[in-house]
Amino acid sequence: MMKKAVLLFHMIIVLLLLVGAGRGLFAQNTEDSLKGVLKTQTKGEATVETLCAIGEYFLDQNQADSVSPYLEKATALASELDDKPGKAKSLQLAGRLNRMQNNLPPAIEKLQESIRLFEQTGDQFETAKSWFFLADAYDFNDEQYNAIEAYEQSIRYFKQCKKKTAEQALYCKKMTGVAKWRTGTNYEDDGNHVAALGNYQEALDLFKAINLEKFQGSVLINFGNNYVAMKEPRKAMPYYYDALKIFQKINLDDGIGIIYINLGDVYGMLNMPDSSLYFLQQAEAIFRKNNYEKYIAEVIYSESRVLLGKNELDAALAKLQEGLDLVQRIHNRNLSANILNQLGEVFRRKGVFPKSEMYLDTARTLIRELNLKPLLLENALSSSKLYEDWAKSEVSNPKSEFLDKSLQYFKQYKSYQDSLFNEEKEKELTQKELTYAFEKKEALTLGEIKKQRLIGSWLLAGLLMVVLFSLAMLRQRNKVKKEQKRSDALLLNILPADIAEELKTKGSAAAKMIDEVTVLFSDFKDFTQLSETLTPKDLVAEINECFSAFDLIMQKHGVEKIKTVGDAYLAAGGLPSPNTTHGTSVINAALEMQAFMEARKRVRKLAGKFFFEARIGVHTGPVVAGIVGIKKFAYDIWGDTVNTAQRMESSGEAGKVNISSSTYELVKTAFKCVYRGMISTKGKGDVGMYFVKPAAVGVGEEIAPFERPVSSPAKQDRNDKVIL
Question: Both 402 and 282 in a single domain?
């Protein structure tokens, strides 16, 4: 629950690092002295430099509103004078300003342009800074892999640039450490814990060499967090304690509070509630002193869970009621849902059933609205236990009503864990539950309280046995289902779903003629010549990045990937099940592929790395599709349509989508196309061809043409990454 707090703490440290971030001749100047210099200057490049220095000063002071007037003047004057260094610096500051205002796409664009201009002027120091600011913008725009690459570029320039002053040299070392540190956090969020640890160690060594204690402590926190994510809490503890010593030495309250929370969580994981509670209380005291209300509420909630685990109900209740007042005041709905649900559980254990029902019902409404699935599971289980306990306390008619509700919520609880239960056993259990409820009603109508209690005990025991039996069966079935899912996933990764199902049910899948599909064929321009200049590792790595992106684009648009051969990529729409949208789906996918390639080209070109350019050809017609042979199944397509699509590709141009007349007739109302005339092709004679204009198609953001599927809940406050 404290990830935002940790992130905020880290960003505050980085902002402190950037203050006075090497402003050349003006590094030591204040606002007044800079304005004084400006008054004495005539119109010229020195004026541009001074205007930029004032703008940078306000950025470093986090005064965004004061930046714009100076930035606008600097930009206009640099353009008028054709002052390339001034243009580059103005773009860098504009990128930083947009990043500060959370306008991330324009921030990225301006910083990329500033890098290009700084590299032309040979200013490696400012180039390094622009790379770092670009990495930061990528980081907060959830472009994780671009962020890592940009941080690495900033490190390269910070290390090799000529340092004009001792202050500038120290700044370069600091920023190299910060870039290593932020690279590590990106690797950690991606689940690459080994790479994260390596970058953290390099950052820590740098910060030790220049005696930056607050940064050492922050990196040590990340070491600990990384081991917690690896489910090795005991390994995390020494790093947290080392960081605690540093922050206590320099009296950094924010850092101490965060470490106390982390230690509280670790001791909770180790089932040591007293130690957990001690550190959480220490964190609460620090956050109260600094009036951080949001984090006070989160710590209070964590404390209540520990107290509930110790069955200290009154203490837990007091904490939760205080926390509820606080979260309602600061409008934290997620935390409100957690606290309301916990209040329901506390009142259940205290036997105050009406209040428990009220809080659980209120929490459930909010949980469903916010789609907090794990919490919905807790709510269903608590509700089931509530009505079971309530039924035990009653001897009159409401008893059967409560038992019915208990069963209802228990079934809901099971449905949220549907992967753990098979349909047959669920039916059997439901039947047992209904029989149990009916017998309880019969017993209640007899008025034989003593007999009813005896029956109740036996029936509850019977129900428990049924549940235990079901769970045992479930574990076995779950194990089998996991293996089956693994096999199915592997098969679906090789074959289309319909073909895979036919193969599983019949043992074979016959090839069949499909009257109309749209085939896409692409390859990379000058691939053979380029491959001769590259190492196999670099070549394969870049092909993999591009083809992985293509795979996700095909998945997004419902186009079937057929195969790759060398640098060629073959896909088709309208199969294995024919449809009427295959033409538009394939064109949208093709345009998105080119948007991806153009965006990746810009990033790699800025980094001085090789890049591919793709030609894409599309043709519509009949094919034969299916699998042949008995080993190493592969779904493939055959026919003249495939050959024609390849001719469309070879007759096209890099960065464009070239389509045949047959495809044009299918999609001409959906896309703007440019007629190229009748073009001679090998083995086909003259063929009518068209280029599709990308501006006519809404394929999403140019820099972010697709999203990766979610693979793990490692990051609560970020979306999944776009990889370029």
Answer: no
